[in-house]
What we know:
By secondary structure, the chain is mainly α. It contains six helices and no strands. The protein has helices at residues 4-26, 38-48, 50-62, 66-83, 88-110, 112-115. Helix 1 (4-26) packs antiparallel against helix 3 (50-62), helix 1 packs antiparallel against helix 5 (88-110) and helix 4 packs antiparallel against helix 5. The two termini are 13 Å apart.
Amino acid sequence: MATISGRLLLWSPRILGILASVFIGLFALDAFSPGKSFVEALPDFLVHLIPAYLLLALVGASWRREWIGGLAFIGLAVFYALMAKSHLDWVLMISGPLAVVGALFWWSWFRHSEWHVS
Length: 118
């Protein structure tokens, strides 16, 4: 894995998985509405952050076992696409990045022996 492209393919699913989690976490800001005080909105905010934390945990679980990330991210993309099938724009914005991250994790898994020493 001495090549730049090899390193890029190794790190891109991990970095993009973290960025996807941050993107999903941005939706939690909806909890802060003009009619609520900060203290009232904070529990809703924390509840809305659960999907982002779950994606971060999934990236952590996939760090050395890329097949987990490939399977789970693609599975989540398909699940969301089926749940929100009447909203194509939502499907593209949520399922699209999840599917890309899953495909990159899968690719990293197929090339695992070339990139990892242990």
